[in-house]
């Protein structure tokens, strides 16, 4: 839950003293309710944890908030005010950054297929770093910058062969994925160089490129520090080798994002300070062993900053209960861990405002928000209103058995990759985002209207 969430004496859920029914009256549902206070606090504490851990190694850490998780003008302003930088992944995200007025020097651009237009925009905005993803792109960035008489500040994204997911990570020597430059020796290269090394050699050969350093990102929703630590070691080995072989200094190393959050009670991510300390210990000892001075470290957390700051507010509509002993009913259906009776609680949104359950089998929880209830808990499945049986918001959750149409449900942990991944499936309007701070609410992204939905249809 976001900070500042509580129940008032009447049993209604409040955020910083504002009741959910007030929020619904003012802004409608579905609605993303984001605590600005919490966002700022998480941004600061994440940044503090890493800065403390790395202070004696490289003077601190540059924290780039990963805008892909949730981005709008207000968020860019908060990020900047809290001393963080911004990671973007498209021209559209750069446009938001530009509109918010963040200095280009504090912005990074990612992407495995940047268009020439996006590269020009990055150079126009004098971005602090363009994270180059392939040899092909390196040449394009070099040529575009040279034509403009510019210098592009470049990080090279490498794939260290470490893949992490929540509790486990796997390390492989070879890479078969669309992102990044492989560190494995390339048998088709005459000198047997890896794509990563070819890119270093090519980058330092271009006058229009200023090679700042190396980058990697090993995955998302990761709980344990081991994968980050292993990737850091691999990149430091490579960085040291390149510095000797090519007589260069690579002053920066970005270890990406991916820090996990708790979506349900079974998730227990490590505190940021613990992860930061573990990563710092590895960087410290590896640099000492290699006899190099540590590069400036940066990271790119998205979910860990915004994920838990937000809940989605839905209104309950249709209810139905499926009983396995009902005449003609069949056990099974969508989701195999079927327990009966199962009550289906339909809400006024669904996979269009949160596709993560459909895409990743992601688990969420839900609570009755508009009132408290002493009714017995009943196993429920919260579903959306889309024309797909997989349109599930919360697979299994106990809700009071008196939940009825018109009640409000709150689903926590929807700050990251929900609004960002939202769609207009079935011509549903995308919900707005309201930010709450100091006991007042402010719309930071307005919800779509039917007019918005019809606007781009040429009507011919
Ligand atoms: N840096 C890079 C290069 C990335 O690709 C990503 C996420 C991040 C940073 C931020 O990762 P975070 O700290 O937020 O985990 N849609 C998926 C997640 C996709 C992540 C893509 N890249 C989901 O909803 O789980």
UniProtKB/TrEMBL annotation:
<feature type="domain" description="Orn/DAP/Arg decarboxylase 2 N-terminal">
    <location>
        <begin position="55"/>
        <end position="306"/>
    </location>
</feature>
<dbReference type="InterPro" id="IPR022643">
    <property type="entry name" value="De-COase2_C"/>
</dbReference>
<comment type="similarity">
    <text>Belongs to the Orn/Lys/Arg decarboxylase class-II family. LysA subfamily.</text>
</comment>
<feature type="binding site">
    <location>
        <position position="388"/>
    </location>
    <ligand>
        <name>substrate</name>
    </ligand>
</feature>
<comment type="function">
    <text>Specifically catalyzes the decarboxylation of meso-diaminopimelate (meso-DAP) to L-lysine.</text>
</comment>
<dbReference type="Pfam" id="PF00278">
    <property type="entry name" value="Orn_DAP_Arg_deC"/>
</dbReference>
<feature type="binding site">
    <location>
        <position position="356"/>
    </location>
    <ligand>
        <name>substrate</name>
    </ligand>
</feature>
<comment type="pathway">
    <text>Amino-acid biosynthesis; L-lysine biosynthesis via DAP pathway; L-lysine from DL-2,6-diaminopimelate: step 1/1.</text>
</comment>
<keyword id="KW-0663">Pyridoxal phosphate</keyword>
<dbReference type="Pfam" id="PF02784">
    <property type="entry name" value="Orn_Arg_deC_N"/>
</dbReference>
<dbReference type="InterPro" id="IPR022653">
    <property type="entry name" value="De-COase2_pyr-phos_BS"/>
</dbReference>
<feature type="binding site">
    <location>
        <position position="417"/>
    </location>
    <ligand>
        <name>pyridoxal 5'-phosphate</name>
    </ligand>
</feature>
<feature type="binding site">
    <location>
        <position position="417"/>
    </location>
    <ligand>
        <name>substrate</name>
    </ligand>
</feature>
<feature type="binding site">
    <location>
        <position position="303"/>
    </location>
    <ligand>
        <name>substrate</name>
    </ligand>
</feature>
<feature type="domain" description="Orn/DAP/Arg decarboxylase 2 C-terminal">
    <location>
        <begin position="336"/>
        <end position="415"/>
    </location>
</feature>
<dbReference type="InterPro" id="IPR029066">
    <property type="entry name" value="PLP-binding_barrel"/>
</dbReference>
<keyword id="KW-0210">Decarboxylase</keyword>
<keyword id="KW-0457">Lysine biosynthesis</keyword>
<dbReference type="InterPro" id="IPR000183">
    <property type="entry name" value="Orn/DAP/Arg_de-COase"/>
</dbReference>
<keyword id="KW-0456">Lyase</keyword>
<dbReference type="InterPro" id="IPR022657">
    <property type="entry name" value="De-COase2_CS"/>
</dbReference>
<protein>
    <recommendedName>
        <fullName>Diaminopimelate decarboxylase</fullName>
        <ecNumber>4.1.1.20</ecNumber>
    </recommendedName>
</protein>
<feature type="binding site">
    <location>
        <position position="360"/>
    </location>
    <ligand>
        <name>substrate</name>
    </ligand>
</feature>
<keyword id="KW-0028">Amino-acid biosynthesis</keyword>
<feature type="binding site">
    <location>
        <position position="258"/>
    </location>
    <ligand>
        <name>pyridoxal 5'-phosphate</name>
    </ligand>
</feature>
<feature type="modified residue" description="N6-(pyridoxal phosphate)lysine">
    <location>
        <position position="68"/>
    </location>
</feature>
<feature type="binding site">
    <location>
        <begin position="300"/>
        <end position="303"/>
    </location>
    <ligand>
        <name>pyridoxal 5'-phosphate</name>
    </ligand>
</feature>
<dbReference type="InterPro" id="IPR009006">
    <property type="entry name" value="Ala_racemase/Decarboxylase_C"/>
</dbReference>
<dbReference type="InterPro" id="IPR002986">
    <property type="entry name" value="DAP_deCOOHase_LysA"/>
</dbReference>
<dbReference type="InterPro" id="IPR022644">
    <property type="entry name" value="De-COase2_N"/>
</dbReference>
<comment type="subunit">
    <text>Homodimer.</text>
</comment>
């Amino acid at each position: 839950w976001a900070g500042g969430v509580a129940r008032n004496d009447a049993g209604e859920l409040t955020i910083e003293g504002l009741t959910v029914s007030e929020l619904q009256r003012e802004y409608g549902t579905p609605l993303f309710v984001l605590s600005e206070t919490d966002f700022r606090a998480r941004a600061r504490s994440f940044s503090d944890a890493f800065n403390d851990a790395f202070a004696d190694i490289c003077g601190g850490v540059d924290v780039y908030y990963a805008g892909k998780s949730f981005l709008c003008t207000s968020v860019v302003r908060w990020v900047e005010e809290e001393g963080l930088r911004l990671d973007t992944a498209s021209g559209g995200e750069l446009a938001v950054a530009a509109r918010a007025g963040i200095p280009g020097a504090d912005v990074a651009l990612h992407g495995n297929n940047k268009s020439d237009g996006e590269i020009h925009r990055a150079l126009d905005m004098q971005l602090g770093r363009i994270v180059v993803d392939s040899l092909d792109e390196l040449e394009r960035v070099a040529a575009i910058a040279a034509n403009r008489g510019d210098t592009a500040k470049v990080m090279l994204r490498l794939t260290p062969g470490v893949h992490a997911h929540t509790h486990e990570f796997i390390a492989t020597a070879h890479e078969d994925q669309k992102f990044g430059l492989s560190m494995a020796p390339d048998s088709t290269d005459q000198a047997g160089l890896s794509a990563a090394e070819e890119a270093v050699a090519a980058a330092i050969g271009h006058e229009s490129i200023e090679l700042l350093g190396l980058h990697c990102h090993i995955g998302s929703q990761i709980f344990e520090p081991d994968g980050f630590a292993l990737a850091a070691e691999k990149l430091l080995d490579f960085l040291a080798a390149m510095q000797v072989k090519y007589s260069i200094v690579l002053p920066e190393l970005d270890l990406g994002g991916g820090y996990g959050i708790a979506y349900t009670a079974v998730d227990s991510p490590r505190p940021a300070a613990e992860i930061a300390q573990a990563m710092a210990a590895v960087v410290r000892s590896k640099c000492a062993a290699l006899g190099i001075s540590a590069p400036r470290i940066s990271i790119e957390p998205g979910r860990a900053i915004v994920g838990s700051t937000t809940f989605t507010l839905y209104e309950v509509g249709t209810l139905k209960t499926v009983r396995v002993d009902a005449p003609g009913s069949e056990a099974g259906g969508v989701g195999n861990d079927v327990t009966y009776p199962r009550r289906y609680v339909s809400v006024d949104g669904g996979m269009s405002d949160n596709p993560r359950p459909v895409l990743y089998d992601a688990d969420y929880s839900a609570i009755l928000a508009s009132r408290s209830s002493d009714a017995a808990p009943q196993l429920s499945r919260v579903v959306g209103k889309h024309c797909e049986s997989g349109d599930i918001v919360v697979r299994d959750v106990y809700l009071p058995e008196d939940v009825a149409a018109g009640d409000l449900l709150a689903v926590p942990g929807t700050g990251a990759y929900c609004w960002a991944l939202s769609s207009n499936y079935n011509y549903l309007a995308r919900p707005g985002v309201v930010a709450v701070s100091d006991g007042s609410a402010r719309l930071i992204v307005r919800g779509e209207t039917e007019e918005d939905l019809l606007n781009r249809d040429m009507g011919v």
